[in-house]
Amino acid sequence: MSIIKSYAAKQAGADLEVWEYDAGELKPEDVEVQVDYCGICHSDLSMIDNEWGVSSYPLVAGHEIIGRVAALGETAQNKGLKVGQRVGVGWTARSCGHCDACISGDHINCLAGSLPTIANRGGFADKLRADWQWVIPLPESIDIETAGPLLCGGITVFKPLLLNNVTATSRVGVIGIGGLGHIAIKLLHAMGAEVTAFSSNPAKEKEVLEMGADRVVNSRDPEALKTLAGQFDLIINTVSVDLDWQPYFEALAYGGNFHTVGAVMKPLQVPAFTLIKGDRSISGSATGSPAELRKLMKFAGRTKVAPTTEMFPMSQINDALKHVREGKARYRVVLKADF
After folding, report:
1. Can you give the pLDDT at residue 301?
2. Domain of life here (predicted)?
3. Rg over CA atoms, the chain
């Protein structure tokens, strides 16, 4: 028997309770990770509440994990990981490894269906297990207390920068300066890009500029948006609410791309000529592959990019979840394991 201690939701929307479960024998490809820190993401709340209709209970959420290798399966022992090594685990715990997407290095789009960490017993626990490919080695230079949110929120906004070949000459807009948007600003600033933050909260302006934005534009001011026509190589949307998108489409330069990582539930309405004129495009993406995650963690370690976080002991997890639910987090909440 291999007993794991966790905090689990026993039913949809319930407070989390201490729950122990037997993880069974370690599979050959698996790595068991001792959890030191775990971030809280809105996706955790969605799964706890069964908003997506796919949750099963008891549910152990948590998918922004920083920890240490505790044990290695027989096959995983030959993959470069060592017991005691500092590692991270993000949104995904498993993928098939042999479909066309996986073979090409695009594991996040596994054709057999990648398995989310929170559907595989996640990081609100003293330990968890994941396939060795998804256990990400961490550079010694990274700040382990704040690094967890990079493994979900961070990679979600880092991938569009890779897909769009962002450089120091790029002009990029970020819509929504919350858990995702604030990391995007820090990454873009570290890359040397020109960054415009679109925010509906004027009170955040000073803070956002300190994060590295070159300017902050009130996203509720139509006149301010009109003055930006034709300026951006890339605009990243991080919000899930429906907005008047047309001013943002028109703010794209020729060849510009509007990229959404915010799960807007209503269809994006865009006139065809908005795209045809200037070869503009609209795209989206999920999180990232193991290779992209490794690249992000190396970049963050070298440039000292770190999410802005608030720390709670894991024993106060229900208070921490309430803090996130009420929109009080500035800008991500991290739990410190204290079993």
Report:
1. 98
2. Bacteria
3. 20
Give the CA dihedral 79, 82, 83, 87, nearest 10 degrees: -90
Q: Treating both helix axes as pointing N-terminal to C-terminal, what angle do 290-303 and 181-191 enclose, rounded to 10 degrees?
A: 70
Q: How far apart are CA 159 and CA 112, in angstroms?
A: 22
Strands 65-72 and 30-40: antiparallel
What average pLDDT does this structure show over 106-134? 96
Architecture of 153-284 per CATH?
Answer: 3-Layer(aba) Sandwich (3.40)
> Does the N-terminal peptide bond of residue 58 adopt cis geometry, omega within 30 degrees of 0?
yes
As given in the structure block, the two tokens for residue 187 are 């990454």
> Does the global pTM surpass 0.85?
yes
Helical ranges in 277-330 per DSSP H: 290-303, 317-325
Positions of CATH 3.40.50.720 in the chain: 153-284
Residues of the chain within CATH 3.90.180.10 domain(s) are: 3-151+288-336
DSSP lists the bridge partners of residue 284 as: 260
CA distance 42 to 321: 9
Cβ 237 vs Cβ 157: under 8 Å? no
Coil vs helix vs strand at 249: helix
**Residue the block writes with tokens 């925010």:** 199
Select from 3.90.180.10, 3.30.70.20, 3.40.1370.10, 3.30.1330.130 the CATH code of 3-151+288-336: 3.90.180.10
Burial of 109 (0-12, 13-18, 19+ CB in 10 A): middle
pLDDT per position as a tens digit, 164-206: 999 999 999 999 999 999 999 999 999 999 999 999 998 899 9
CB crowding 47-72: b at 16 or more within 10 Å, else e? bbebeeeebeebbbbbbbbbbbbbbb
